[in-house]
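Notebook, p. 212. Picked up where the previous page left off. The plan for this session was modest: take the two constructs that came back from the sequencing core last week, fold each one, and keep the raw output in the notebook itself so nobody has to go hunting through shared drives later. Recording the first one now, exactly as returned: residue sequence, then the structure token string.
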Amino acid sequence: AMAGWSRREVRHAAAAGPGERHMLSDSLHSSTSSSPPLMLFPSQGSAASAAPHHHQRISAPEDCGMSERRGLAMHQEGTVRENSRTNRNCDPCDRYDTMDYMGNPLADSSDQGGCNVTGTRCLGLRTNRPSYLLLTHMFILICAFTSVTASELQYATIRYSQEMGNVVKFVIPMQWRRTVEFTTIQKGEVVDVVGTAGVGSGPVVFNPGYGPTHRIQMFVLDVGMDYVFGEAYFTLASYPSLNNNGAPWVATLQGCCLPCSYSHFNLTANVDLLNAPSSSAFKSLPTVYVQGGVTSIINLPANTPGGVNSPFWRLGQGLEVSQLFIDRNVFFFDGPDYLQGRLTANFSVSNPALQGSCQDSFSVIAQTLSVPGFMVPLLFIVKTVPQADWIKRPTILSPTVSSLNGYVGYDVFFTISATSSNPGIMQQVRVFQLPEGGQTLNSRTAVQSASVDVHWMPSEKQTGIHWICYEAVDGLGLHSEQKCISVVVVQQQAVLSFANLIANQSVSFYMREHKTVSIIGQSSIPYDLLDIAVEGTIEYGQVVTVNTPSVQTKVKATDNVNVAQLTADLSWRPDINMGGYNKTICFRLSARGDLSRPAVPSVSLCIRVVVPKCKYMAQSGDTLQKIGQIFNADWLTIWGLNAQLDNSTVSVGQEVNIGRSYKVVLGDTLLSIANLFSVTVASLRQLNFDVSQAKSAYTLEPDTLICLFPNTCP
């Protein structure tokens, strides 16, 4: 529906709000989708596509400047221009999208000459010479504002998903060789696609298997030194039934041209919504590099958006490969390898010159199958690398595992790193076709090294197996081997718990000793982000520090851990008047994360914090004389309370008795106990925190232990 838009209009549509896009698309009689990629094709319900079999869509021609770059004069007189078209394929600017439901151009009765390809594209108005000349010059002006790109197709596949009822969304990932037409193309642009190679050229068209054929426009996702990668979207393919009377609907992607052989391609996808509401998607890289002269195994992993693994595949055959020749002595599956999605490439048995290729590059078409009636294509390139370059290729350092665990609603995070022995700064680590919602962050390149972080938070609809493939490219342009890792996603309720302490456990702090106790909370899902908070209040001097991990220190999917952990530290140095302290401190452990996942119940832990009475833990530099000064007591009395001491020397960490314990009997008060042992009520309060607030005449609880220094002097 964007055919004929200027590049500025496309960018304006991409930046416009829904209402603005509606007005823009109305002005051009196109569909009114709410996001730029979904505006690339007209809907089946639009006026432009009402006829199911014979449909004529008139749109402004593309960039005629491309013809000038191919050495064709655009300012010739009508007769000269018309005669030139009889000796070559039609220039894309001379063709229009008048095709039947099988993708065949329909003849235009008003066109009385010129093109040797059925149908022309100059608005179908060729009734007289003056009009033709006028329109020729008008087309030069119009085409100058339309982004048309031409190149060789390196990679393509088709995937689909059922939106509702019989309505299907198609996504067509494509990679084209970056030629002069792609020089100024940037990520985020929307471009028309015209394939060209050698002397061949032609539009790239798509037909869903029912209804009209449509020209391809591509939303550019990635631009490399020698490639442009993007996706085309066809959002409203409507079928009259779930399948075609028991057979699948056959969607086709057709056009020109394959690399080297300059032949046309014809990729087919079988659509059977009754058996497969969503198709698989191949995840292998557009170009797979293997060592020349030997046998190599190429992984061709595929899975559905919902995580159904699709390892079953076969090589394309018949009309599926069109003019492409695939040598079955070179490319084949060995025994049960097709069950694991593995393709054998044996370059030791065949002369590459016989492949109709570029000697070291081979286009291959594979078809993945999952259930009866379902099949999608993969066109990719296998490129052989000489031994001398093979030993110098970059090496993937991590991940070192072949499979990772993923959980619905939790960030699957890992780092891909690579190194190269060749000098210079590495170009990139390329991660290809992440699952929906995935992204790469913190891409880093340095001399002989490169890395990138992968983040993906699976949704409930993505449980199952998902493949992620990647490679590294160094400063010399050498590519590593393709690596693929599977992420197995499950939906699991996290279980929170405390790891090192149990409920109501007592934790002792000695007077004048600085001590830290760790409270470790954990989740059964290792990617969880946790919080620990204190419930209620804490005493003066007590400090709780929660070591909340940052994004940089969070658990990676590649880490060898089974649980997520978070530590809170309780630190305290009780004073000499805290003996007998005995209180409960509670902590609450909760999970914080994506709100889309089910809430994880928080848990609490309460512990008893106790300061023993009549006990002191010797610190560095302590002697009995110094301890006596701390407690305002005679050191000889303290020595007498510690039979284990031979002299006044004490060791660090040694427990020292600093008083005697008296068990309260019925009727005892602080005053009565002070009188009994000839001490003051103030000294009893200082050594017994638990009764420090009691009045002197208050009757104490029987069996309570009271610490005191008895007056041993007459």
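Okay, moving on. Second construct, recorded in the same format:
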Amino acid sequence: MPTWEGIEDASTMLPRIWLTRLKDTDVWKPLRKIDCKALNESRGLEDVLIEGGRATAHPTEGTITWNFVSSRPPMKLIPATWFTQTPNPKSKNKEFILEPLPEVDSLQIELLYQNAVRASSSLGEGLDSILQEEVILESDPTFKVCVVRNGGLIAMRKKPKKSVLFGLGEVQITLQRGYGQYTIEGEDDENALGDLTHVMFVIHGIGEAMWCKEEVSTMSMRDEMDQLRMTVNKRKIMAWREECKKCERQKQPFPPLPNRVEFIPIIWFDKVRSPTHSLMSSLTSVTLRTVPALRSIANDVIFDVLMYLTPEFCEAILQCVTSEINELYDKFQTVHPSFKARGGKFSIVGHSLGSVIAWDVLSIYKDITEKNAPKGSADDQIRIDAPASPPRVPSLETLDKTENDHDHNALPGFKGADDGKHGTWGPTLPKKMTQTIPFEPDLTIFLGSPIGLFLTLRGAHSVFDEMRAVAEAERASLIPCDDEEADMVAWSPGGQSAPPPVFDLSPIICSPFSLPTKACYNVFHPSDPVAYRIEPLLLPEGVSNNDIPPPMFLSPDGKSLRLHVKARQVGDQIFKQFGSLSNLFESTAQNAAAAAAHADAEAARKMANMETEKKDGSAQSSPLRPNFEGCIRDRQVAFRLGGRTSRVDFQIQPGVIDNEYLSAVTAHSGYFSNDDIIDFIIFETRSGAEDNTE
């Protein structure tokens, strides 16, 4: 029996391979095998969800649309069984570029091939008559397909219909039956995972208008999410297989399949930066034509921050992001109708300026949902650093204050507009937003976030401190006076005296401010020039920088710190203790006399003031600013903003050899490929992660 050339699939029933591409100049690429099977089962007559529900194939229209990325253009879709082999000039392994033939031609070519197979079989009549047959391509009548025998090889060839000079110099293209074996990166890992249980909406930051350009090598947010998804799936499966091997050695049952996590990018730049918008046309007209590369950075990257600092465009961006999340939230549940019934969770991740947008979106959610919320019940426990129900402060500053005459950020009964206190933790908008996101996030993760800078500009520190003062005053109002304590003892059960209740009178250190999320993490690279901390703004304004607790190191389980990081922590503690002792001895030796003289002078001044007050009889006591120096050293702080975690600021563990200036170049753009962050996301989004607390 002769040998065929170009027959990758010799099966009797040749399955169709579905291919896709974006532009006519792109190479056709096959879909995932599981998606090809689903389309073949539908016989190409109805729409089919592909890519794990992220896209929908429309075989009758020949297109693929993306369900969760509205800005992504549709792709072309075509089925094929026969292909032309064209040498790939870029390939060193002599690989071919496969160009699918239309189905109308493939049917005729397949019929000719089957006739040739039967003719060349043991009971066939030979190939002589078959070699004379030819098929004129309906898609291109200037070409034909025929069976060609070259020595011991037989092939299907495409060549011009009319030969010139008896076929001398004629170009013949070999046809291939079937696509052959292929693999799609990430398909096997995703298919091996269990149910989809977690969705993360990821809001991009500055510069997305530049990263989406084809000539820029930096990955866009959409591409980063595709890569992150594949990396997370791969690590989940690898860890699960290792656990299976361990269980097999110990003769224990295998662990359940790991859950699947979906990452959905929230793209807002293209809607705010529409080329038809008057702002963009004005920006283009005022931009100088010199050094275009540098001016492109200013217009495509820095301009995003300037836009967000403008109330009108801040509102437009927040409305865009909120509407996008609502639309994708509904669409996701249409694609996965049983997601919430299975206990699925939604989370929000913000990168760079996207983290500020995420903060403001949650501020609006807090302002709307808690507008008429009660303060709580009398059974709420009194907790240091985390009162059960802090008083509500409106988070949004509006330019239009016709509805309310009072300061939107003032606390009732405490300092407000009268003493110059003015601040907000939310955005300043032309008018209040009425739309908000449809869920409370299970996780809120800020990556490389400048939130601390924005909150400082908004004056949020004084507002957070005011909330702490109100919480402390509320706690003090619940502590009974001496007469009430006596009544409590006298009326104790059984008629016997009971010990009086013990109340903690130590000052509240951390502001009770929180956002509507079950857990909040502010994650940053130590060398990221754009990242800022949040925790210092939640501490009293009187706390010195030396007393502010350092950020926690990011680790999946809160314990697995690298050896060199532990060694560095020990070294820092020893240096800090040694430095404190040396400073103490030096101060004692050199400044003892000066300190004594200063104390004597201060005592004399106070005695003189007391004598003056006694004579006047009208001493006025001015409120003193509380002194919080040293109040944190022996206490473990717990920030309510963290939700089920006690801390908010987390820094990525540095490398063994890590130059902070060299790391600063790539620190801000490398979060989604960082191993620590990927492991952290896997750990926090695993099944049962809500039971994990630090």
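Notes on construct two before I forget. The longest strand covers residues 143-150.
Flagging for discussion at group meeting.
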